[in-house]
Amino acid sequence: MVKYDIFNEVKIDLTGQLFDVKEVYKHAHDWLDWRRFDVVEKKYKEKSKPAGREIKIEWECTRDIDEYSRFEIKVKWEMYGINDVKLKQEGKDIKLQTGNIVMRVTALLVMDYGAKWETNRINKFLQSFFEKYLYAGTFERLKTELWKEGWDFYNEMKAYLDLYHFGDYIE
Hints:
The protein is α+β, with helices and mostly antiparallel strands.
């Protein structure tokens, strides 16, 4: 199995941001589900601290393209200083959170994800021939497609987080 970095840990860093933790989580998950990625939560850790809650999440999202290629998007979330706040929106009280979010997105193109070609030297030679001469056009197309999907996810999450500019704080 060979993994090719399409981009590595591109970062969204928002300080003092207003958001709804559950909705941001759900929106990211739904976006990936809609694009047929299988989302596996590798880590979820939440701690209460005097300055506010701290949440760390790691996702590994995969989509098999064919029997040989797989898209993989890794998402690492760090949310800290998270505190609940009440706001008024259109005359109604709503509960959101304020805090800091750092999200890192990595996109990888995985070839021979089943490790079928790594059984012996002859197969490894055939694999290099296959990738270099027969699969080269497909490989370039997949790199471009994954680059676009990875950046689409990044831009979607950045735009979604920017939507949280609501009314005045309620004391």
